[in-house]
Amino acid sequence: MALTVTGALLDGEVVGVRCVDGLIAAIGAGVATQPGDEAIDAGGAPLVPALVNGHTHAAMTLFRGYGGDLPLMRWLEEKIWPVEAKLDDEDVYWGARLACAEMIRGGTARFWDMYWHPLATARAVEDAGLRAHVGGPLFDVDGRTAEMQAQTLADTEALAGCGPTIAASIAPHSIYMVSEALLRWVGERATERGLAIHLHLSETEKEVADCLAAHGVRPAIYLDRLGLLGERTVLAHGVWLDQEELELIAARGATVVANPVANMKLAVGGVMPYRAARDAGVAVGLGTDGAGSNDSLDLLSDLKLFALSQRHAAGDPTVLPAAEALAIAAGARAPLLRDGAAPATPSETAAELLVRGAPADFLLLRGDSPALGLGELASDLVYAASGAVVDTTVVAGRVLMRGGVVEGEAEIVARAAERADRLGIRVDG
Ligand SMILES: [Zn+2]
């Protein structure tokens, strides 16, 4: 089944896009609907690539607004961990479906997830029509190293058997929740099986101080020594990385995902050093983090805060131009986040992702949105828009939202609320 979109506006030119087998088969001024195609007349709506959310804990939508004013450790110990101990597959499935509905609404096609019951998340992603890299978190501070290893091997094997839109990754939580021995094991298994590694790194200053005290080196150096820093490594946060660490990360080809809203909500006291990372040649992406610590999965809203926080922290309004910020949110500056999808090298702009042979993941924006249309599109998207400007979301050539309607959304919201009730965490009124 082919999908053809005509009458879309790309870089000021009216174009058509024809999608076959999940890929862009043709894009340009002369592309027209062929007999038998599913057809969309964009009516002059702007066409942009779909976004990539580089760090999530999708099912944590269930915890949105639950104890969020507490300090981090009290929030985890008193609110989150007791409820997470009760989670079952159906809780995670409906929490992840809720996250997927929100991401479809906000124009996200692909995300990198770390959460319990990863197969339930994978099932939710497949049912929603999105793409994800999925890994169950590893922790062994409680001594459950062997159990974690067995679970991880079972999960990655089962995830590999999911459909083409799901990729397995190994997701050690962080260097402070995972032992040195288990981290080494993760590095070996990831290399052996060609899997990506996804972890939190250098989120707080305390993490850096503790790493220096325990291992004598900063977090990225420690990770490299254990064999975990490579081309298929995604480092979430990276707020406290120094110049030496950034140069090492660039040399190893790893990716850093900034999570500015979660950093501000948890008051970590800094921003990911974007300018130094870019200048060192680090691949950079953008993530929301879990809905428990954000609380939104609207990547365009976070993009504004990413750009503003970088400008503010640098004391320099030129540190991150709007087109560059938009390219980061689309995953254009971090090929791994797009799973090596063409083109495999970093792209300058988001629009360069929309080429023949690339995944058919794109958005049509509301042409009549008050937030768009007068200024430069990239600038409007970064500073004036939110996910509310997305009219149509297409992922792998399938229409997941049209005219702002996500199929089945009411049921998803109702079922997620039932799961929150079951867990005793729903706050009424
Ligand atoms: Zn996280």
Percent helix, as a range, is: 25-40%
Structural class: alpha/beta
* Residue fraction in strands: 15-25%
Can you list the ligands bound to this structure?
A: zinc ion
Q: Uncertain regions: pLDDT < 50 for 5+ in a row?
A: none
Q: Number of DSSP strands?
A: 18
Kindly state the mean pLDDT as a whole number? 94
Which overall shape is indicated by the principal axes computed on the Cα atoms? globular
* Gyration radius, rounded: 21 Å
> Ends: how far apart?
46 Å
> Mind summarizing the main beta sheet?
9 strands, parallel
How many distinct helices?
14
Brief digest:
This protein is α/β, with parallel strands linked by helices. The protein is 37% helix and 22% strand.
Describe it:
- The protein is of the alpha/beta class.
- The chain is built from 14 helices and 18 strands.
- The strands form three sheets. Strands 6, 7, 8, 9, 10, 11, 12, 13 and 14 form a nine-stranded parallel sheet that branches.
- It is globular and about 60 Å long.
- The N and C termini lie far apart (46 Å).
- The structure holds zinc ion.
List the helices and strands and how they pair.
Layout: E1 2-10, E2 13-20, E3 23-28, E4 38-41, E5 47-49, E6 51-56, H1 72-84, H2 89-106, E7 108-114, H3 118-128, E8 131-135, E9 137-138, H4 145-160, E10 166-172, H5 180-193, E11 196-201, H6 205-215, H7 219-225, E12 233-237, H8 243-252, E13 255-258, H9 260-265, H10 274-280, E14 283-286, H11 299-314, H12 322-329, E15 362-365, H13 377-383, E16 390-395, E17 398-402, E18 405-406, H14 409-423
The chain binds zinc ion.
